[in-house]
Amino acid sequence: MIRRIALAGALAFAFFAPAAAQQPPRASTVEAGVYIEFGPSFVDYQNIESPERCRDLCLQDRRCRVWRYVGGTAPAEYGRARRVCVLGDRAPQTRTRPGGWATSGQVQ
Prior knowledge:
- This protein has helices at 2-15, 19-22, 51-60, and strands at residues 31-32, 35-37, 43-45, 66-70, 84-88, 94-96, 102-106.
- The chain is of the alpha+beta class.
- The strands form two sheets. It has a five-stranded antiparallel β-sheet, covered by helices on one side.
- The N and C termini lie far apart (48 Å).
């Protein structure tokens, strides 16, 4: 009897799996040469090797709606904020095209 209840419970769980497990994978744009401003970030990662890695960090965090990567060739006015990945949970405010040192994206 206990085995039947356990089996029924396991089957019910498998049938009614959480919706999060059935959601399609998240995707993001990748806008090379674009600097998206989105207000305060909720996390900044230092020494990130590429814009693609930054995008992946954003896609792994359900809070992330927009991201920005500042590469190692950023101008001096960006100071130490080079090779940094910035994640935000707000909608984009502005887009500028400063050149090849910035890449941004928005989760779709």
